[in-house]
Amino acid sequence: MAVLETTKTRAKAPAKRAPKQLSVELPLGQILDGDCVEAMRQIPSASIDLVFADPPYNLQLGGDLNRPDGSHVDAVTDDWDKFDTFKAYDDFTRDWLIEAKRILKPDGALWVIGSYHNIYRVGAILQDLGFWILNDIVWRKSNPMPNFRGTRFTNAHETLLWCSQGEKAKYHFNYRAMKTLNDELQMRSDWVLPICNGAERLKEGGHKVHPTQKPESLLYRVLLSTTEKGDVVLDPFFGTGTTGAVAKRLGREWIGCEREGVYRDAALKRIEKELPLDESALTTMQAGRSAPKVAFGALVENGYIAPGTRLFDKKRRWTATVRADGSLAYEKQTGSIHGLGKELQGAPSCNGWTFWHYENGGEVKPIDAARQLYLLAVED
Amino acid sequence: MAVLETTKTRAKAPAKRAPKQLSVELPLGQILDGDCVEAMRQIPSASIDLVFADPPYNLQLGGDLNRPDGSHVDAVTDDWDKFDTFKAYDDFTRDWLIEAKRILKPDGALWVIGSYHNIYRVGAILQDLGFWILNDIVWRKSNPMPNFRGTRFTNAHETLLWCSQGEKAKYHFNYRAMKTLNDELQMRSDWVLPICNGAERLKEGGHKVHPTQKPESLLYRVLLSTTEKGDVVLDPFFGTGTTGAVAKRLGREWIGCEREGVYRDAALKRIEKELPLDESALTTMQAGRSAPKVAFGALVENGYIAPGTRLFDKKRRWTATVRADGSLAYEKQTGSIHGLGKELQGAPSCNGWTFWHYENGGEVKPIDAARQLYLLAVED
DNA sequence: CTATCGACTGAATCTGGAT
DNA sequence: TATCCAGATTCAGTCGATA
C-alpha cells in the first residue's frame, strides 16, 4: 500500500475544505478484486479527487444480430451486463453511486458514461443522491456501427455525465486547457472522437479482450479537463484499464475495481507498458491551464505601462491616467482598471483588460496586449 | 370538431392492431385551452399517431448573468418553468406521460425534448411507464450561447427521446427519407441544426413571444422520419405552434394543448399563414420515403439485366443464371438474389444486391449498380 | 448597390476570497 | 451568513446604420 498525503495545493481548493494533513492509506496503482461496492468500502471517505465510471449498460439485446453480408455482430452478451428488471439495475446503480459519493472529496467530481439504455436511470438516481450535474457530454463517434437493419437512426453517440458533489460544491475545471485543445474556442459539450480500434484495441488470440473498451482519447479529455497532476482517480468498473493507462500517462494516481480476472490481468499488463509524459510536457499543459492572473500593477512595476500613461476606451469617451500603484484616475474618480471602467459605464461589470486602450507607436491596443507581452517574458 | 377515420392503410400497421373502423371525433387543427393533462383527457384512447412534447426544463437558474461586455442575459424566468423539488417535477412528468401513452395508438410514438436539467428524469419515468426508447437524438446546436464565465463546457446540445409504446410495439420509421436527406448515408443520432432566430423567430414589439421557440428544421426532421401524410400529431406543450406549422406544411394533422393565451394567439396566427406543400412535393418525399423495394424482377422486366445473364460473386465461387421472372438458378438450386446467396454461403442472411456481380463492357459491377441506374430513370 | 462595422441575442443550473 | 470587491469572461449569426 502506498501512503498518500491527501492535502495538496490546488488552485480552487481552500484549505478549510481539504482534510487537514490527514495521512490515509490508499491502494494507489492497484486493481481491487471483487464487487466494486465492496471494494470501495475499503477506501476512506473524502479521499478521492475523481471517480470515472463506465458501468454495465443494461443492454437488452434480443436475438442475434447479423450484418447485411451475413457476418455475425459480436454483441455485448456477457453475464455482467444482465439485469432482470429496471428495479434491479436501479438498485445496483444506487449502491455504487452511494459509495462513490462517500469516497469523493467535497470538491471531487464524478463522471459516468452510458447509452440510452441506462443513462437516464443513472442520471435520475445520481440527481436523487444529491450529485449536481455540471454538463452532459455527448461523445459523438466518428465511426459508429451502422444500424444494419435500417430500423432506427444510427446510434452514433454515447453520453457522459459530469457532476459535482452538490449544488453548492466546488469543483475543478481546466478551462484554459480545454480552450487551447479546441483551437482557442470554448470546448463544447459535444466531443467528436473515434471509437477504440486498431492498435489501441486490446486483443487476445484475435478476439477483443473487452467488449466495450473505451478510447484513450476520451479519458485523456476527461482527466485533462477536471483533474490536476497528482490527483487520485478511481474507476469502479476498471475493465482493461483505459482509465489507469491514461492516468499514468498524465501523472495522475489511479485505483481500479474489477471482478474479472481476465480484465485485471490485461489491464495490469497494459498499464505496466504505459510511460508517463515527461515533466516538461505536463508543465506545458499546466501553463496553458492555470489562469494567467496578472495584476495590472505588475505591468506598471515592470515598465510595460509607464505611470502617467493615458488610457482610453475604444470610443474615447473617457481618458484616464495610470498611477504608480497601478490604479487609474479619471477626474475625481479612481479605481482599478476593472472598477473604474465599471463605474464610468454604469455597467454591472467590466473587464478592464479589454476596455482600456493605450497608444504604442501610433497603434491603439487594448492593455491586454501588454499583459500578453508580459506573460510571454515571464514564462521564459 | 372534425371527424377522423382512424383506420388507415399504413405499411407496418397490421389491421389487427388498429381499431376497427372506429369513428372518433378529434379536435384536429385546434389548440386546446388549459392544462395539458386535462386537455388530453378529452382525446379518445389509441387515437393519436405521434406525440411531440417540449415540456418545461426545470432549469433552476440562480441569479442574474451578464456577458463579458456587461450586457444582460435574458434568461428563462417564466413561472411555468418553476418547480419546487425534483419530486414535484417527476409527478408533473408522470401525469402527462400517462395521458400521452393512453391517447397514442398501439403503433404510435412519443418524442420528448429536454436538457440535462430534466431529460434524465423524463427518460427514467417514461421507461418506468413502459415506453421503449428507440433512439436518443442529440440536437447539436451550430450556434449555442457560450459559457460566459468559463466555468463549464459550452452547453451546446439538447436531447430528444424517441419511444414506441413498448418493447414489442410496432412503430414507423421512414428510413429511406432519412437516408436521402442525409446524402445517402444513414441518418445518425446526432443532428446539427441552428437555433431558432432571424425571421423565423416570432416577435412582438421587438421582443420574442416565447422564450424557447424551437427551430422548424427540428420538427421537420421529426415528422418526416416518424409520421406519414395524414397522421395525427399532438403536442401537449404547444407554445407558439412550431409543431402545428410544420405538420400543416407536411400534410399531417395536428392538435395542440396550451395554457397561455398569448402563445395560443401567436400560434394560430402563425399556422394560418403556413402553406401546405403541394401534392407533388409530398409525393416526391413519399417516393423517397417508402423503401425502394425494387424487385430484381423489375430490372429484368425493364431490360437493365437481360434474362440469361450470368451473375457471380466477387471471388467467382458461384455463377448463377438470371431467369425471366427475376429469380436465379445455380445448378439445381433456385431462389431470389438474396435467398440463393444466403443458401450458397450457408450464411444467416445475404444482401444479393452487393453479393452478385455482372460484366458490362468488360467491367465487373455489383447488380446494385443496375438498380441505381434504374432508380435514376424512374425518378424522372 | 455593396461592404463594413457595431449592436444585439440565444433553454444558462455561469466566481471566489476576504472581512 | 452576508457583504464587499478584485478579477475574469463569449460564439455564431442577424440586423440596421454607415461608408
From TrEMBL, chains A, B:
Domain DNA methylase N-4/N-6: residue ranges: 48-267
Matches recorded under InterPro entries: DNA_methylase_N4/N6, DNA_methylase_N6_adenine_CS, RAMA, RM_Methyltransferase, SAM-dependent_MTases_sf
Enzyme Commission code: 2.1.1.-
Organism: Qipengyuania aurantiaca
PROSITE patterns for this protein: N6_MTASE
Keyword terms, alphabetized: DNA replication, DNA-binding, Methyltransferase, S-adenosyl-L-methionine, Transferase
Name the UniProt record assigns to this protein: Methyltransferase
Domain RAMA: 278-376
Lineage, broadest ranks: Bacteria, Pseudomonadati, Pseudomonadota, Alphaproteobacteria, Sphingomonadales
Reaction catalyzed: a 2'-deoxyadenosine in DNA + S-adenosyl-L-methionine = an N(6)-methyl-2'-deoxyadenosine in DNA + S-adenosyl-L-homocysteine + H(+)
Record-stated family: Belongs to the N(4)/N(6)-methyltransferase family.
Gene3D superfamilies listed in its UniProt record: Vaccinia Virus protein VP39
Record carries keyword S-adenosyl-L-methionine: yes
Source superkingdom: Bacteria
Pfam families the UniProt entry points to: N6_N4_Mtase, RAMA
